[in-house]
Amino acid sequence: MCGFSVLVSKKTNKKNLITETQLINKLIKHRGPDSTRYIFGKEKNYSFCMFFNRLKIIDLSNKANQPFEFKNRYLIVFNGEIYNYLEIKNYLKKKKIKFKTNSDTEVLIAAYSFWGKDCFKKLNGMWSFVIYDKLKKEFIACRDRYGVKPLYYQKTDDKLTFCSEIKQLRNTNKKKVNNEKIKEFLSGRKSKNLNSTFFENIFQLDPGHYLIYSKNRLKKKRWYYFKNRSNDSLKLNSLKDLLRKELTESVKKRLRSDVKVGLSLSGGIDSSTIGSLIWNESNSPKNINTFSTISKDINNESKYIREFLNKYKFRNFKEEIKFKDFRKNLEKFVWTHDEPVSNLTVYSEWLNYKNMKKNKIKVNLDGHGADEIFCGYENYFSLNILNLIKSFDLKNILVVLKHLIFLKISNKKNFILKILINLLSLDMQKKIKNKFGKNFNSDWIKLKHRKQIKKDQSKNNSNLVLGENYNQFFYTSLVDQLKWSDRNSMHHSIEARSPFLDYNIVEKFLLINSNYKINGLISKFILREAFRNILPKKIYERNFKVGFSAPDRLWIEKNYIYVYNLFKHYLKYLNDVITNDCKNNIFKIISGKKRYNEWIWKILFLGAWVKVNKIKFDD
């Protein structure tokens, strides 16, 4: 897990190009503090420089440092992890390919040498990399299936840049802002354009795509197409066996490391399942520490964390999220992310990684992807009920009614109200939420824009649950989470690994029968049933998790003056973005004159982002 900077320039002055590449590479030293190395190359019509910051995870020797050269033909800078590198290496050895390191980097470039671009489909992992082929005189930049690792690029008339974070390109961009992206961010409506960023002319490579740069031409091609490998003929018990097999194998592969490993433990079923597997399948589980953020609000997960630790004796490091620390860390946190974040839970995760770094952890396992695959969000219940009504499935409708009456649900009235509202049309939902102040009002946006952003419809799937699974995984929820997770972890020089994102799990379970995911009002049904024998009883039985929580409402109650002044300070940077009516509503929420809504923190983060990045808006 590392960071790179690659500049290809028509200008051939060696010293200037090295200096320019070195300057932008210093901005991401946090991604790879263990070593920095570069290679300069010169061809007839262009020169290039590849800088690399390494975080040593597999093969800690200097022989595995990057940029890495193979067969005197290929150069590579690679950020990520190939989890099946040992299996690929053993195969290539049988083909008489020799290796000089124990790193997955050498396996990756050897695989490219042997199979060419077909090797991408053989890789099980997360990655972004740039390869230079000296013989063909072409650059190949590639990103993993689901976009776990970032890859940004910018092309001008005389230069092409590949890099790991937007901050490396901001100075060359003169901070020209993408108004469409800000409007999308504020309105909460997501487009399916994953290529754009909050800055004009700075792009990210789409997941499952690669770029070819040759003869001053840049071409983008798609290498990965989602393949639905779910088997409708399999019954629940067979699917549970398959899930146990695949997730166990995924966790084992993600424990491959030459450095200390940690686990993010929230008290929910996702992280608890991973932790339970680690304890039962790892050779030395006591060497792995767990890390949790806690708070004093009503969503505190401490009792479930304690329940897990009573069964499995991991050492746990807790970090309480406090308002005074948030104020102190806010602008550093905003700088970390390059683009504005939506909520305080992202900061909570950032704080958890800070605690890991303090305890010398360099690899962490998390539960990202499980909610999107197995229906972990509340809106899935409403979609499932609509499915049952459409198909006249009286048996499962009765199960829902039974659960509504007998299942223990905290704040049941509010939960039922949410389900009922979500059964309405999108227009009716918007009207109701606007009336009660639940939504940010799009009329509050002052920015000029070229077009109206329309909400993307679900993937063409007659099953509403599976359509939402697909869209959350590939276009909405998970896209943001992976971006935030990468910046949070790498800012603290830690590699984040997500066992649920193994493509064998995604392709086999994302589109399985939705009745195996939601049973009445029990979410993630197949996941909890597959691992019920190893999960702590209270965690298996709980139906709703919060994850990394933040006591946002409690902060306002306990620190009213400080919160008020914090918002007052950052909102002044948004005079060109939002109306005074929006600001007035925020201050009414803070003062208790209007119902509390967490969208106000999204506005705070946007204001801090404008300040930290010295954003100027066009008149």
Helix and strand topology:
Elements: E1 2-9, H1 14-26, E2 35-42, E3 47-54, E4 68-70, E5 74-82, H2 85-94, H3 104-115, E6 125-133, E7 138-143, E8 152-155, E9 159-163, H4 170-173, H5 179-187, E10 203-204, E11 209-214, E12 217-222, H6 236-254, E13 261-264, H7 269-281, E14 289-294, H8 302-311, E15 315-320, H9 323-337, H10 344-358, E16 363-365, H11 370-374, H12 379-390, H13 394-406, H14 412-422, H15 426-435, H16 464-474, H17 477-491, E17 495-497, H18 503-509, H19 525-530, H20 537-541, H21 552-558, H22 560-571, H23 580-591, H24 599-612
Parallel strand pairs: 13-14, 13-16, 14-15, 16-17
Antiparallel strand pairs: 1-3, 1-9, 2-3, 4-5, 5-6, 6-7, 7-11, 8-9, 8-10, 11-12
Helix pairs in contact: 2-3, 6-7, 9-24, 10-17, 12-14, 21-22, 22-23, 22-24
Distance between the termini: 41 Å
Beta-strand residue percentage? 15-25%
Give the class from helix and strand content and strand pairing.
Answer: alpha+beta
Helix content: 40-55%
The low-confidence runs, each spanning 5 or more residues with pLDDT under 50, are 452-458
Strand runs, count: 17
Q: Give the biggest beta sheet.
A: 6 strands, antiparallel
The average pLDDT is: 92
Rg over CA atoms: 24 Å
Number of helices: 24
With strands numbered from the N-terminus, the spatial order across the biggest sheet is 2-3-1-9-8-10
